[in-house]
Amino acid sequence: MNLKEMLIKEGIIKIREKNEEPFIINELGTKSRLFIDIKEASLNPNILNEIRRKIYNYNEYTYNYGANVFNYYGYAYDHYFHNYDRIASVAIGGIPIATMLSISLGIPQIIIRSSKHSRGTGSQIIGDCEGKNCILIEDVSVSGQSIINAVKVIRSAGGTCDSCIVIVDRQEGAEENCLDNNIKLLPLLKKSDFGINLKDD
């Protein structure tokens, strides 16, 4: 069973037909035939493992050469992730996935808060990214604004970040908006993968 099938089977992705009332998907009252409760995926170890497998296979090394390589500790540490010093995520959606990858790959994490803390150092970042090349992990992309904001925080702290792996892209402008900010969006799945015509949704 692949990731798409698992998300549907577990009710994490819910799809309604054209003749059914669409879901209300946000506080603005926006409606869609596709509902994604992707945070539920982080509670299921089988789905997390499938996300990890799909992320490992979604990289330039396996695309070009068809195989992973392993470091001396046995971690899947392929050519693509060799480019990165930190795995970043935005609280809270991407944290479980980023943690799984951090453990598997032996790459430290950083976490981007939604806003600066009023106490302590007041930093918006948990962890150090100065002089580090980061890859961002996010659960769902809509407009891409949360991704752009997180990347700006990383860059302002002295780190670099030009790619974001997202589990599902709702295809509502995130890819284009990210490109405008020199960020490559790498979705594992897109709304259109679930048989929904974007013009009809």
SSE layout:
Layout: H1 3-9, E1 13-15, E2 23-24, E3 31-32, E4 34-36, H2 45-57, H3 60-65, E5 86-90, H4 95-105, E6 109-112, E7 125-126, E8 133-141, H5 145-156, E9 160-169, H6 174-180, E10 184-190
Parallel strand pairs: 5-6, 5-8, 8-9, 9-10
Antiparallel strand pairs: 1-4, 2-3, 6-7
Molecular structure report:
This protein has a domain at 53-65 and 75-194: Rossmann fold (3-Layer(aba) Sandwich). It has 201 residues and is α/β, with parallel strands linked by helices. It is built from 6 helices and 10 strands, in the order αββββααβαβββαβαβ. The strands form 3 sheets. Strands 7-6-5-8-9-10 form a 6-stranded mixed β-sheet, sandwiched between helices. A two-stranded antiparallel ribbon has the order 1-4. Strands 2-3 form a two-stranded antiparallel sheet. It is globular. α4 links the parallel β5 (86-90) and β6 (109-112). The longest helix has 13 residues, at 45-57. It has helices at 3-9, 45-57, 60-65, 95-105, 145-156, 174-180, and strands at residues 13-15, 23-24, 31-32, 34-36, 86-90, 109-112, 125-126, 133-141, 160-169, 184-190.
